[in-house]
Amino acid sequence: xxxxRYNMLSMAVFAGIIFPGGVFAADVFEISGWIPYWxxxxxxxxxxxxxxxxxxxxxxxxxxxxxxxxRAESSLExxxxxxxKEEVQKQQVYFVPTILWSDADAxxxxxxxxxxxxxxxxxxxxxxxxxxxxxxxxxxxRKYASTRPYFSLFLKELNEALGTKMLxxxxxxxxxxxxxxxxxxxxxxxxxxxxxxxxxxxxCDRVRIMAYDQGRxxxxxxxxxxxxxxxxxxxxxxxxxxxxxxxDISADKMVLGIPTYGYEYNMVFNAETNGISYERVTxxxxxxxxxxxxxxxxTPIRNSxxxxxxxxTTAELPENKGALSPARVRILSWGDAKTAQMxxxxxxxxxxxxxxxxxxxxxxxxxxxxxxxxxxxxxSVSAESSYEALLSGADLMYGMRTERVRLLQMFLNKQGxxxxxxxxxxxxxxxxxxxxxxxxxxxxxxxxxxxxPAVGYFGPITRSAMKAL
Length: 469
Description:
It comes from Candidatus Ryanbacteria bacterium CG10_big_fil_rev_8_21_14_0_10_43_42. It holds the Pfam family PG_binding_1. This is GH18 domain-containing protein. Residues 29-379 form the GH18 domain. The protein is an alpha/beta fold. It folds into three domains: 2-6 and 21-261 and 336-379, Glycosidases (TIM Barrel, Alpha-Beta Barrel); 267-334, no CATH class; 393-468, PGBD-like superfamily/PGBD (Muramoyl-pentapeptide Carboxypeptidase, domain 1), CATH 1.10.101.10. It contains 17 helices and 15 strands. It has helices spanning 2-14, 40-47, 79-90, 104-111, 114-131, 148-162, 177-180, 197-203, 219-224, 235-245, 286-296, 337-350, 368-385, 388-392, 403-414, 436-448, 460-468; strands at residues 30-36, 56-64, 70-72, 94-95, 98-101, 135-140, 166-172, 206-210, 254-259, 262-270, 275-284, 301-302, 308-313, 329-334, 354-358. The strands form two sheets. The chain has an eight-stranded parallel barrel, surrounded by five helices.
């Protein structure tokens, strides 16, 4: 974003146009998804037919060595990534890979040293430049609180280096202290965090909250919830997390993470405390839970978190029939298309930028795409029904992404000034991106209407010409 704002402002002033407000509008609901490198072929194959549903794809593929140099877990030159990148460019979808780093010592050693930090940023920029990436997604987890100022400085410097490219920040969920601790007195007076939310808001174009892996961290919900309760992401908890983050992070940048997996636990009864503890056994995709349910002849039901779950003992497994070893009580809890819909509803209620799905690998609930498509269609219908907003709203210009751009493309296509003949921007396939094709079509319309200057800027003069038609 950054310097792009100034370039656009210069273009507008040069053309003798004054426009209000910011360059980037906030009325588009964004949908993105991480594609893991370990299932890149399946993930790409799964998302390609659904690219029209998403605004961004995130190859989950970079790691970092101890010395701060990037490690590509999968080459972007692999056929599936090349194919995906070609298709997203056609459909004007962002291609923003993710860097995951969770070595607290190495992160601190790299970011706290100006020389090492500069080398790390240079390595990131080399990848962005070599592969023509639209930006980068920073997912640095398990950092020390002492690393906080250096992480902020890193984001500042990376933001400057990226220029017009997008800087995403993916960060852990922060549970409100009153829910995390049993009483006000038990809250540590000197508690510190590893992320400075205000700085993240200042330097990042998008902030994605990983509102999952909740477990038992919310003591308030633990007490309120009936039955076994250890969810991946209760929507009630996710709302607390987002509302807390919104105190320091703009809703226009905020993105809610949606999990597509689940966890299996052993339930352990403690006779002394008359309580239950949970021991994680494994993580799984929905297909595993479905197969296990069929094997046990059990029907998954909704728990108080809204997730699907089943409860069984290991003695019920066919392979354990007649076994002498003690049986264990186990619980599975996982998200599906319905819980995804609940998260989308929450995002829309809170007025945040959108949602990000972790993960797209072909093993998520097959019904997920229908839910995501419905979310996009609802936004599109809403925008189309408020067509007057195109004529009365803020100006539109090159580089913007907003539903009003889709309306502009629809108008141009209908009037015979085709944005594109096929693919993104063509009739029935209008997009939210004001790119070269939209600008060229708008210039043709302006010239036909005798509008001067005909520079592809959608302002008061062009709106007046439209109203006169």
